[in-house]
Amino acid sequence: MRPHVILSCAMSLDGYIDDDTDERLILSGPADLDRVDALRASCDAILVGAGTVRADNPRLLIRSEERRRGRARDLIKVTLTTTGDLDPGAAFFTAGDAEKIVYVPPGTTADLPATVVEVDGLPALLADLAARGVGRLLVEGGTSMHTAFLSGGLADELQLAVAPILVGGGTRFVDPATFPKGRLTLKAMEQVGDMAVLKYERPL
C-alpha cells in the first residue's frame, strides 16, 4: 500500500523551473496559484526535497481559509534529507501547526522540530506515509524529487503548468535519468490565466 502520488510543477515553455540568477523565477500567476492551492487542499500531505526547503524556504500551507475549514486535519508537511542538515528556523518547521515529518537514511541523526523517521528509499517512505493515513501525496519538487519519483515509477499523476516564457538556461523540471518506457495518458488540458495546465496519468 502507498498513497496516490501527484507531481505538480510550473515550468517555462522550454522546460525550466528556475533560471541562473540568484532571484527565484516566478512562473505562476494568481490564477495558477489558486489552482495549486485547491490541489493542495485535495491532498493529505505535501512533499518537497531538502534542497527546496533550503533554497526557496516554502511555507507549504493551504492559503484559502475556506479550504482549510473544510479539512479534517492539516496538510502534513514532508521532506527528506540525506544529511539531516536543515535549518530548524525554516518556514517548513515554523509556519502553521501541521505535523512535520523529516525522512532520513538509516543511521542518520537530525535534531529538528519534527517527527524524524529513518527509511531506506522512496517505497519505504511511501509505505510509512500510508501507515500514517496519507491517501494522497502532493510532490512539489524540486528537480531531484521529480526525477526520483518519475524514474522510480512512483508518480500516479503529473500536473504541468506551462508559463508563456522562454528562459534559455537554468534548472530543468527533471534531470537525465532512466525512466519507465511507455506513454503517459493525457487526461486534461486547461487554460488557467495565461498558462496551459496539462494533466497526465501513468498507465495502469
Automatic annotation (TrEMBL):
Spell out the InterPro entries in the cross-references.
DHFR-like_dom_sf (IPR024072), RibDG_C (IPR002734), Riboflavin_Biosynth_HTPR (IPR050765)
Q: Which residues cross the membrane?
A: none
Domain Bacterial bifunctional deaminase-reductase C-terminal: residue ranges = 3-196
The yes or no answer to whether the keyword Oxidoreductase is present is yes
Gene Ontology MF terms in the entry: 5-amino-6-(5-phosphoribosylamino)uracil reductase activity
Q: Under which pathway is this protein filed?
A: Cofactor biosynthesis; riboflavin biosynthesis
GO BP: riboflavin biosynthetic process
* Highest taxon listed in the record's lineage: Bacteria
Keywords of this entry = NADP, Oxidoreductase
Q: What is this protein called?
A: Bacterial bifunctional deaminase-reductase C-terminal domain-containing protein
